[in-house]
Amino acid sequence: MRRFIALLFTMTLVCQLDVSEYWTTDPVTSTPFFRDIMARDRFYLLLTFFHLNNNENNIPRGQDGHDPLFKLGTLYHNILHRFQSYYYPGQNLTIDECMVPWRGNLSFKTYNPDKPSKYGLKAYMLCDSKNGFCSKFKLYTGKPLIPHSSNGATYDLTMDLLRGHFGKGHILYCDNYYSSPQLFSDLWELGVGATGTVRPNRKGVPDELKNLKLRAKGETAVVNKGPLNLTKYLDHKPVYMLSTVSTSENIDTNRKDPRTSGENIIRPRVVIEYNSKMGGVDRSDQMISYCKIPIKTLKWWKKVIFHMFSMAALNSYLIYKSTTTERSSLLFRNYRRKLIKQLIEKSNDVGLHEAKKSAGRPSGKQLERLTGRHFAEKIIPTGTKLTLTRRCIVCTPAERELLASAGEKRRRPGRDTSFNCAECNVALCIDPCFKLYHKYKEYNLAYKRQKLAAGAVRNVNENNTEE
Question: What per-residue confidence (pLDDT) applies to 185?
């Protein structure tokens, strides 16, 4: 299963990597390197295992029991389970929305003017406030068939995302879309602290605080009710903060305000903590945007799956940074390149020789050809031909490149051969192509160097003969 995930993940990310060294140049097998590292039967098994569109549950939207995410199959839930099982977040958690860009026709497409990608599929994320690791990801699919509780839809959503983190000392940071006095009180009873901005029209916010007028910038007003601490702070406009773990005492931020002749900026503690620990989801979105998988598709569920692959790459990078013992860790872009190359190399350890050999395209391993045992054999003819020849995989593309660099054109560069490698199932000349193919990783380059060296020796001999 891990190898299947590695190969599927590699296929999604390889578009950002220069794969010229893995590309075959034989006209018959001029296809990407996947064909050389995985048997065709195993590839079909991979597609079956990660079957995205569950046709058995293909019920029109709106009927009872229909899951709008049925097109994502089990892969969507499997990836989310991996997020939660391999890394446990720190004390501070963040809940916020992210957008999967999409402008097609879809019933649950949303518009959010506050996001860089304003049109798309909205998803709710639970992230670590410190590094942006995404623990939970829930896609918005429209109004649910099951009615929400009396506390509201956002209350149920928050409780659902925090399930599994109760009673462990976590502190939640969220904006005014989620926060409410009822939610924070219930979270306090469940062993989870919370801090966030709150809308003044929320049920439970006292009227005397809403009607209180603050005169000077930086002025605060505080109301305490049990574990709840409600603060009204005047910045450019009134800001309402709600917390069960932070106080409203003023703290010097050690920063100068240029509008007040360089005076120090003083803010309540709850505002400072909120500003410093609320950006977990935004940090995750920012890192993903640097290395998005460039895919153009008319299928919305493909956009979601590829976005989750990007999140999986980022999550693995954050785990690497938190566990590495190196003096200086890799940058994210360098980590992705190294990850893709390692996945490609490890996929060659799969026992491809155990898979059934099927007629058609070869399924030999690209890198094992340098270490395994290989033997030349005659190409077995099919049909009425007594002898069968094929174009050599080494000298044909190499001769074509040599002729192109010299400005010459020939209809059929290279040579035909009646021999092939029994293990690799590719056509090869006995001398020197068979040796070059199994000795050098860049066998075409080795052939061209040998050809040029032989030509230089021939020219020297001819000059000596003429003298």
Answer: 94
